[in-house]
Amino acid sequence: MPKDNLDLICQVARLATSLERTTSLNAFLDQVVRMVAGHMSATVCSLYLCDPKAQNLILTATVGLASSAAGSVRLGLGEGIVGAAMAERRTIRVARGSDSPHFKFIPGIAEEQHAAFLAAPIVFGPTPVGVLVVQHREVGFFGPEDATALEAIAYQLAGTIEHARLLNSLSDERPPEAEEGECFVRGASGAPGVALGPLATLGGSETDFAALAADARYQGAAAKDFARAVAETRRQIGELEAFMESQQADVAATLIFSAHQAILADDSFTGTMRQAVETGTPPARAIAQVVGHYANLFSQSPLAQLREKVRDVEDLGHRLLRNLAGGSDDGGDYRGRIVMAPDILPSDVMRLKAQQVAGVILTGGGVTAHVAILCRSLDIPLVSCRNPRLAQARSGEQVLIDGAQGHVFLNPDQKLVERYESLRRHAGLSAEELAAIQPETRTADGERVRLLANINLLGELPLALNVKAEGIGLYRSEFPYIIRSDFPTEDEQFAIYSRLAAAMDDRPVTFRTLDIGGDKLLNYFSTPTENNPFLGLRAIRFSLRYRNIFAPQIRALLRAGAGRGLRIMFPLVGSPDEFRAARDFVAECAARLAQENIPHNAAPSLGIMVELPSAVELIDELAEQADFLSIGTNDLVQYLLAADRTNQAVADYYVPYHPAVLRALHRVAEGAARRNCPLSICGEMGGEPRFLAFLLGIGIRRFSVDARRLPALQRAIGTISTATARAFAERALQTRSVQEAADLFTCRGGNNS
Ligand code: PEP
Ligand code: MG
User: Fold this and answer.
1) How far away, in angstroms, is 505 Cα from ligand 2 center?
2) Ligand 1, atom 9: nearest CA belongs to which residue?
């Protein structure tokens, strides 16, 4: 075990954080070596990166050696101790470097003053990434525990560095002066991920159906071609329906496609086209006329639900035209494409997902929270960009987008495309990482910790199961509401909740009731405009105000829980009174179901999300009444510090390690323990390794996190003992300023100090 496991975790967490802030790979690696040198008390730390083409290792970053060495020293695989560590894929530790048979003297870098030598290979799956080296003046300075520590760091760094290297190599392609040019356009990040594909536009020139219909490829089409195009379109939509039903049943993308089927079957739509064709109108023109007519009609409707139908009709129009031309591509099917649109609706996102879109560029302004969250959950890279250069981009032009950086590359060259391919291969969790996940998580001293997954969409369930989540600690139930053009019915919700519960089998699922308001609004339900929506009719307040909306959700949950355990959690509870009101409402719904003889769970476990300062103050009272508590740190931080979590202008004030937050978390943990009330954490803080020691130290043993974070979290927990965690938490709780806490959590700089 490393000398100081806790420091190791902090170091690695710090590295990850610094990576988020750094766009240059070299700057990132400089931070890596400085941090590792600090952690290992080494007089030298160097990082060599593999150059796969040249088959050698380049000294890329160093502290302790002559600064001129970085970039100039190259070693072949097998050459020197460093080359041997990589070639043999093993850590090499020698008391005095020059005693090693592998030793190679490199003049002019002042290496000879640092005798003790320890080198660990950095390998990501089968890919050699580099070698991490520490040296020390004192002969025999590094012991076996240091070798373990360096290996652990190298292991943690492998994916991060490789990913950063590839990502940064994409960014490095832009001109050094970082000005937009012919090929590179800078936008803002919407959802991470890198995607490559031909451009397709949505809602742009492709909606001029009259012009599209004049295209040569449709001329000569006859009535029988039209009939074939309709039949083919029906078949394709049926396939999309089935695909989405299996993947994303909760957000009822199926509804989108059943709407398509309904329009297609409608006599006033296809029937009108058919009549026109039969009386001699060329089929493409007949399609264009009817699509244009309905698109126009719907776009002028005062009802948002109807305005949304414009896209459905246009989508169908594209599909019909494409099938009329015998399958040649003319939009409407976005498989593998980068779709560019002025704006986009959540339902568009679902439809594009069904059509296996590669990525999205929004040209009309900001990205709404819904669209960004949806794209993130569905793994669709998203960039928002208003650059006029994009207006000139043509359909079919090759585009590469980097969603995390907000970069767009038009017609990327072969080098960029190769890097993209490499990035894609490294995306997600490696098979090795998945195989290494243990079904049970324990601290270094063997204490049991439960790791659960947060999910937004049913489509994320397979990942949660793959990473062996012990349950779902937070299902955000609002997505089926957000995605539709009307409230989901009780039966639709019942189907979603049942499916989720059945998929997790005997593992617990915590259903969080509708959390809308704030920045999550339903476009089909207008509520009075609020000056401060985050301080407005949000979450449980909304549900208790609109009980006709709350009732179908609670009934659906109770029905889905029939014959199995059921956990329902209320968001943003501010007082015991509010919790009681929600609990009484659940009892009323259960009584009604009993009267109606509908099978249901009459005694679900009812929990509270601790997200408000008032809930912290009354934690004992809440813990006494609730069956369980879960800390929603995303909101708790924003409300404790009065810093809107969506407002970039106050991002520096949103400080999860603020001493006030740390103390509040401690009070919640103490209150829950005093009242014997099970407690978990389900906000982002729970998934960040740098807070792990603190959270374990104050007694948290259940973490519900984004499933992708689970493997790293499990590894990190295994390196921390409860005694170390407690000692760290005590130190953290003594901090008296943001800066002091920042120093402790190894974050650079404070906020507003
Ligand atoms: C939270 O506030 O921490 C939380 C998990 O809920 P949401 O992010 O959905 O508001
Ligand atoms: Mg919340």
Assistant:
1) 26
2) 476
- In terms of pTM, does the model score above 0.85? no
Return the CATH number at 124: 3.30.450.40
Task: Tell me the CA–centroid distance for residue 565 and ligand 2, in Å.
Answer: 24
- Give strand pairing partners of 226: none
- Measure the CA angle with vertex 294, ends 291 and 296; round to 5°: 105
Q: Say yes or no: CB of residue 634 within 6 Å of ligand 1.
A: yes
Ligand 2 center to 515 CA (angstroms): 8
Torsion of CA 99, 101, 105, 111, to 10 degrees: -40
236: which residues sit within 8 A by CB, 6+ positions away? 319, 323, 333
Give me the mean pLDDT over the 313-332 stretch. Answer: 74
Same structural domain, 129 and 256? no
Closest CA to 32 of 129, 157, 164: 157
Is the CB–ligand 1 distance for residue 527 below 6 Å? no
The model's pLDDT over 384-439, given as tens digits with 9 standing for 90+, comes to 888 888 888 888 899 999 887 788 888 888 878 887 777 776 666 777 778 889 99
**268 and 159, same structural domain?**
no
SS3 readout for 172-216: CCCCCCCCCCCCEEECEEEECCEEEEEEEECCCHHHCHHHHHCCH
Which member of 102, 114, 136, 370 is catalytic?
370
State whether the beta carbon of 682 lies less than 6 angstroms from ligand 1: yes
Say yes or no: CB of residue 515 within 6 Å of ligand 1. Answer: yes
Asked if residue 127 and residue 219 are part of one domain, the reply reads no
The boundaries of the domain holding residue 209 are 181-413
Active site residue 682: yes
- Identify the three-state secondary structure at position 581: helix
Is position 420 within any domain? no
Ligand lying nearest the CA atom of residue 683: 1
- Residue 428 falls within a domain, yes or no? no
Contact 679, 669 (CB under 8 A): yes
φ and ψ of 186, to 5 deg? -95, 130
How far is the centre of ligand 2, averaged over its atoms, from the C-alpha of 738 (Å)?
23
| pLDDT for residue 688 | 87
Residue at 363 is within a domain: yes
Cα 632 to averaged position of ligand 2 atoms, centre (Å): 5
Alpha-carbon gap, residue 210 to 212, rounded angstroms = 5
Task: Please tell me the residue having the least CA distance from ligand 1 atom 1.
Answer: 632
Co-location of 472 and 350 in the same domain: no
Which comes out higher in pLDDT, residue 647 or 737? 737
Residue nearest to atom 3 of ligand 1 (CA): 632
Model confidence pLDDT, tens digit, residues 562-607: 999 999 999 999 999 999 999 999 999 999 999 999 999 999 999 9
75 has pLDDT over 60: yes
- The ligand 1 atom at the shortest distance from the C-alpha of residue 634 is 3
Give the chain's length.
753
The predicted model gives 161-183 an average pLDDT of: 57
One domain for residues 147 and 191: no
Which CATH number fits the domain that encloses residue 534?
A: 3.20.20.60
Q: Is 706 in the pocket of ligand 1 (CB under 6 A)?
A: no
Cα-based distances in Å from 533 to 390, 528, 644: 34, 10, 10
Q: Is the CB of 632 under 6 A from ligand 1?
A: yes
Same domain? 663 vs 730 = yes
> Do 254 and 126 share a structural domain?
no
233, 308: one domain? yes
Atom of ligand 1 nearest to the CA of 636: 2
Element (H, E) at 35: helix 25-40
Overall domain count for the chain: 3
Helix then strand then coil, in percent of the chain rounded to 5, is 50, 15, 35
Decide which of 173, 203, 218 is a domain's last residue: 173
The residue from 50, 589, 682, 747 that is catalytic is 682
Establish if 487 belongs to a structural domain: yes
Please name the residues in contact with 496: beta carbons below 8 A apart, sequence gap of 6 or more. 249, 250, 458, 480, 488, 556
